Amino acid sequence: MSHASTAALAPSVAQQPGARLSAVAAGGVAVGLFAVARLTGATVLALAAWAAGRHPLTLLGRSWDAAWYLGIAAHGYGRTLYFGPSIIHSDLAFFPLYPALIRTLTAVTPLSGAGAGLLVSWTAAAVAAAGVYAVGARLHGRAVATALVLLWGLLPHSVVLSMAYTEPVLAAFAAWSLYAVLAGNWVWAGTLAALAGLSRPNGFAVAAAVLVAAACELRRTRGRVTHRLWTGAALAPLGWAAYVLWVGHRKGNRLGGYFDVQRLWGSRFDFGRGSLAFVRTLLLRGDRFVFPMALVIVAAAVVLFALLAVDRAPLPLLAYTAVLLLVALGGSGFFESKPRFLLPAFPLLLPLARALVRTARARPWHATVVVTALAGLSFGYGAYLVVYAHTPL
Q: DSSP class of residue 82?
């Protein structure tokens, strides 16, 4: 997939300074809308937290996995909690890039660990929104790109983008790596994919997208490619592989050590058997609101992937979202967290963004109602998840 072959995917921005300035301004508007959406969501969460006698910044910066990341940033790896012979939670399950960024910030600024974590996440979320816009604009123009960013910022679990979690970091590297692939910038694509692989266990989805695109380009050109493609393809999986092998070495099982750690957390890839058993239990017995909502979101993601495939989206985007879906659906344990695992899968929203733009042009009032409803769900459900649900995110 060379620059020439990918340029046909969407009209490129004209090279005149005025056109570039217009494109930057349009991207700024999209990121601004995203920021307004997330600030409004954070305000609703703060009001709910104060009403419940809790501090919103503590909830955003120290809830659930955030506490593990803060511990790694402050003390390094080595914390283990024992809940039984087959349930052992080790901090080695958490990838190193995010706590390393927190540690760096706390070393050079007066910020606390939680404050540094929130700053990293909020900055990464803005960078990710810009990358999501860039991918959408390259494929379908500025209007669809703006709708794509807005929809991503109004997902039911988008509150995570305001928390000290790693999803914003992964989304930022993923969006810009995918954009680099579409533009034929292989070294950048591979470098960003390697960093994505250091941020989260499912970050290897970005490397998969780069490798699939590189393989297709090799086939298309019959092997006549520049060294940049080989360099990018070689770089892409290095981050994820390096951490997995390091944990394996530390646990005395180089290839399987990291997966042993995950298994003791209750997370393993079982081809969806655990997910199916959970769905069966949920349907037969019922449960709290969080679990049915998670089931609906995961089912919607599967439908959206089918629509994305029917829409003949570029192969790198399909590969990226397919791997994220495969990890979420095929992994056992923590079903309530699966919508969060899918939060970086922004290409799934492309069919909805295109439909929203068509609706806005034909019936602006209908589009306004849809966006308002999504905002209400996102803000209300986000506050419920963080303040009231008492369920791991």
A: E
